[in-house]
Amino acid sequence: MNKLGKLSLCLCLAVGQGTAQARDRRLEPLSQAPGKAAQRGNPYASQPGAAGAGQKLYERECSGCHGTAGQGGRRGPAVASPTVAQSPPGAIFWVLRNGSLRAGMPSFSHLPEAQRWQIVTYLKSLQ
Ligand code: HEC
Questions:
Q1: DSSP letter at 105?
Q2: What is the total count of domains within the chain?
Q3: Per-residue pLDDT tens for 1-37?
Q4: 0.70 exceeded by the pTM?
Q5: Would you say the CB of residue 109 lies under 6 angstroms from ligand 1?
Q6: How far is it, in rounded angstroms, from Cα 127 to Cα 116?
Q7: Do residues 127 and 69 lie in contact, with contact meaning Cβ atoms separated by under 8 Å?
Q8: Does 52 map to a domain?
Q9: Is 124 in the pocket of ligand 1 (CB under 6 A)?
Q10: Which of 10, 43, 87, 103 has the fewest Cβ atoms nearer than 10 Å?
């Protein structure tokens, strides 16, 4: 192998390792929501049917990574968890909007706000 070949092999390995590390690294996105976003109240918190609607959305959009009942899975941490229970609804909403892309949590900003709040309501009803 010539020098250039060795160099690019080296680079490839380094990039591969970086990706594996990113996957293992937990970025604690809930604690990264800016104060103003975290303080937003959930307009759907006490609305009848919101948790049920959120559950359907959760099953469709989230359960593949976070488990059918939020217990966590190979691709995502538990969301039926003390961390989520103790996080302000606004912080969860913020994470759904922004994701935690480097750690593998996608953004759900393509869902209408109402649906994202319904999912927040469902997550808060777990535990
Ligand atoms: C492709 C896999 C994947 C999908 C789909 C996904 N998530 Fe995640 N989610 C993750 C990963 C990975 C993390 C960890 C992010 C980190 O540590 O920075 C995460 C983190 C979270 C967190 C923060 C949990 C904590 O303890 O820090 C919440 C809340 C969450 N996801 C909710 C959802 C909801 C609700 C949906 C569906 C609308 C969803 N996720 C869809 C992979 C996914």
A1: B
A2: 1
A3: 677 666 665 554 555 444 444 455 789 999 999 999 9
A4: yes
A5: no
A6: 19
A7: no
A8: yes
A9: no
A10: 10
